[in-house]
From TrEMBL:
Record-linked Pfam families: MipA
Protein name: MipA/OmpV family protein
InterPro entries xrefs: MipA (IPR010583), OMP/PagP_B-barrel (IPR011250)
Coiled coil: none
Family classification: Belongs to the MipA/OmpV family.
Length: 273
């Protein structure tokens, strides 16, 4: 009997659990904390998020709102679970395949895109589902900088697409302040972008929007931030992020306000356990 893509990903993960080193962390988490946090940790808090960017038909995004902060990483014999409120991709399940002094390689199972639920009967035909992707994450250091490469493939059957990304960042310590900067590029295949940004002939007939087929494309993201310890277990964080959409989706008729770049500012206070 032939295994499906999700079954193959699960078998690969189970096989990897037989042996292996400790897992590396996402470099965004490392830079925001100002340290390489090996081992378990949990951070809970509340933040205020202000956002500005392109708007979609049938989706009313609040430009200002409260955000729950749930950051953490739990490891056991190479297996790890991560969650980063700043990234909004959901839980990351992974396993550390290789751990060297200057680089590491992890196997990941996570989500790259969240579902959308449109308001109004006519717009609901544009609803999308969250995907599940399996991939590899290569991380390392180059002097004071940290870098990371990701490659992934959809295993949920939502769009059967694939993608890759590269990030480079650095942190600075100034008194009790931890400052960081992070920038990266990401690539998504045509199947990914067309599922989340395209408009099919059927969707066009229901909504009246022009049919649109999105192609593969490159996007970018940049982030700067600062954190300050308010007390032994309390920390104040601020993160400013800008995300630039691929050029292949900017003309999609899904946009009611097709801005090229989305920006957000998150201010939060968290308790670190």
């Amino acid at each position: 009997m032939r295994n499906t893509a999700p079954q193959r990903a699960a078998l690969l993960l189970v096989a990897a659990l037989m042996t292996g080193p400790a897992a590396a962390e996402d470099i965004g988490r490392e830079l925001r904390r100002g340290e390489s946090a090996e081992g378990n940790y949990l951070e809970l808090g509340l933040g205020l998020r202000a956002a500005n960017g392109p708007k979609r038909h049938g989706l009313d995004a609040d430009p200002l709102g409260l955000a729950a902060i749930i950051n953490g990483c739990f490891q056991w014999k190479g297996v790890f679970i991560e969650n980063h409120a700043e990234d909004a991709h959901g839980l990351v399940l992974g396993y550390g395949l290789v751990e060297q002094p200057d680089w590491s390689l992890d196997l990941l199972l996570t989500s790259k895109h969240q579902r959308t639920r449109h308001e109004g009967a006519a717009w609901r035909v544009l609803d999308t589902q969250a995907d599940r992707v399996a991939g590899l994450r290569l991380s390392g250091t180059a002097g004071a900088a940290v870098w990371q490469f990701n490659a992934w493939k959809d295993v949920s059957g939502r769009h059967d697409g694939f993608g890759a990304s590269a990030q480079l960042g650095r942190a600075w310590q100034h008194g009790n302040w931890n400052l960081h900067a992070l920038a990266g590029l990401n690539y998504s295949s045509a199947k990914v972008l067309d599922y989340y940004h395209g408009v099919s002939a059927q969707q066009s007939a229901v909504t009246g929007l022009a049919a649109y087929r999105a192609g593969a494309g490159w996007g970018g993201a940049a982030e700067v931030g600062a954190s300050y310890p308010l007390a032994r277990d309390w920390v104040l964080r601020s993160t400013l992020r800008a995300i630039r959409n691929p050029s292949t989706v900017r003309d999609s008729s899904r946009w009611s306000d097709p801005k090229r770049t989305a920006t957000s500012l998150l201010l939060s206070v968290s308790h670190v356990f």
